[in-house]
Amino acid sequence: MHVAIVSHPIDSAALIAAVASDSHGATSLFLGTVRDINDGRAVTGMDYTAYDAMASRELEKIAREAAAKFDGVAIAVEHRVGALALGDVSVAVAAAHAHRRNALDATGWVIDELKRRVPIWKREHYTDGTREWLDPSVMAREAAT
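The chain above was modelled as a monomer; its predicted structure follows.
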């Protein structure tokens, strides 16, 4: 298991390597990236901030819960903080298991739980020069749909 809040670009190959094993026949990778539009507003970038100690503890809890829920799946999760540009990876989840269904399901479950439970906030930068913090409770509800 590997979980981290990082301030550097996320290395997806390193996350895949962190969950690799000869006993795993399936590896699933989710990458969340900064997109150019949100709720009809053109976005130029984003700032992420976190309560690092609490976020790391909650990420670890989520990874342990996933291992229990999905029959020993191996999990690696990183979330980036700081200023990110369009296309930058903000979050990555790698899951590996002997079977694809557990790897795929665990990946989705982990990102949903991360969005719902981990104290990480984002502020979007818009093309009109304004910036706005997004409400995490609304984001969590939207992520569940």
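The domain at 2-139 is CATH 3.90.1170.40 (Aldehyde Oxidoreductase; domain 3).
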